[in-house]
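Worked example

This section walks through a single chain of length 275. The input is the sequence exactly as stored; nothing has been trimmed or padded.
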Amino acid sequence: MRASSLVPDLIERIVAVQARIAAAAARVGRDPAGITLVAVSKTHGADAVVAAHAAGLRVFGENRVEEAGPKAAAVAELLAQKHELARSETGQSREARSETGQSRELGRSSFVIRHPSPIVAWHMIGHLQSRKVEDVLPWASTVQSVDSVKLAARLSRFAAAAGREIAILLEVNVAAEASKYGFVPAEAPAAVEAIAALPGLRLQGLMTMAPIVADPEAARPVFAGLRCLRDDLARRFPAVDWRHLSMGMTDDFEVAIEEGATMVRIGRAIFGERI
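Given that input, the structure is written out below as tokens.
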């Protein structure tokens, strides 16, 4: 399905989600501008991402490295084509079109959008195996799922060698579920001490996944627990940037916002069921 046919339905879904974000923020006296909507595009194609981009979204989350890299490249190409067409239709100079073409070529080769239109930020939100670190760096601006010191050290080595810096969040398994990855809360201080000074990384906060529950209120203690952990870590490590709490998905993001989420990861409410 082409992006143009997806836009009207996506606009309605995005507006509805944004309204729910704003309402949840208002209930606790927060400014919704401080909450980033991460559109989880896993299993959905580049056309769907381009449609969501046209509807105003700029941050997208992916779970699988092997799916995300080619998708990021395809989105870069499609957006570059749209931008070049728009410039051509408005009578831009041949030189400007040439520069856009060069940027598009860079986008194809590196999985990074490098044309002048508003950028797409890609976040890795799924479990990242250490052996795939080199493959995630070309397209991801943020890795939300750093769940071990070993993974952070490997990210650091590859990022520093590439002369770049990548934002990271530490994944915390607040509920101590055996099926989930992440540091347990008691491990977090030692992990921060080991990771915060690594070159090539910018530690910016914490991420968690709440248990799947029928009532979103049942997830509230998990979100409150992550916020309390972040506050404790901020006291212990004041030099670290603790700006983000990534928590809450389609079924529970409003409760997460009430408990302090600065990022919510929403897929189904925007793109529909997984393909």
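What to look for: The chain has ten helices and eight strands.
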